[in-house]
Amino acid sequence: MAKSLFVCQICGAEHRKWAGQCPDCREWNSMTEQVIESTIRVGKASKSMATTAIPDIAMHKTERRSTGINELNRVLGGGLLSGFAIIRA
Ligand SMILES: [Zn+2]
């Protein structure tokens, strides 16, 4: 989130609020607004990441192997997938 800071061009004093006269050096109309960017750049990081369209993943055909137990096949969504692991707690 960006926030504004007002910096006096004469003495370099920084203030949260704009003032017609710098409270430090008493110069008039010397304060200019500066936008301070947040150090966390979420937008840039996410843009550089590789993306895969959801249909490419969801529509990928997978072969299911029957477990030999109909009830278990049904629970697994049709059988075991290659590389599939079941962790029993
Ligand atoms: Zn000043």
Protein architecture, described:
With 89 residues, this protein is α+β, with helices and mostly antiparallel strands. It has a domain at 3-36. 20% of the residues lie in helices and 20% in strands. It is built from 3 helices and 5 strands. The chain is rod-shaped and about 85 Å long. The model has no long low-confidence stretch (mean pLDDT 79). The structure holds zinc ion. Zinc ion is lined by residues 8, 10-11, 13, 22, 24-25, 27, 30.
Shape: rod-shaped
| Largest sheet report | 3 strands, antiparallel
Number of discrete helical segments:
3
Give the radius of gyration: 31 Å
Mean pLDDT: 79
Structure class = alpha+beta
Poorly predicted residue ranges? none
- Got a strand count? 5
Q: In percent terms, what proportion of residues is strand?
A: 15-25%
> Roughly how much helix do the residues carry, as a percent range?
10-25%
End-to-end separation in angstroms reads 43 Å
| Widest β-sheet, arrangement of strands | 2-1-3
List the ions, cofactors and other small molecules found in this model. zinc ion
Secondary-structure element string: EEEHHEHE
What topology does this entry show?
Layout: E1 3-8, E2 14-15, E3 31-36, H1 42-48, H2 54-58, E4 64-65, H3 70-75, E5 80-81
Antiparallel strand pairs: 1-2, 1-3, 4-5
The chain binds zinc ion.
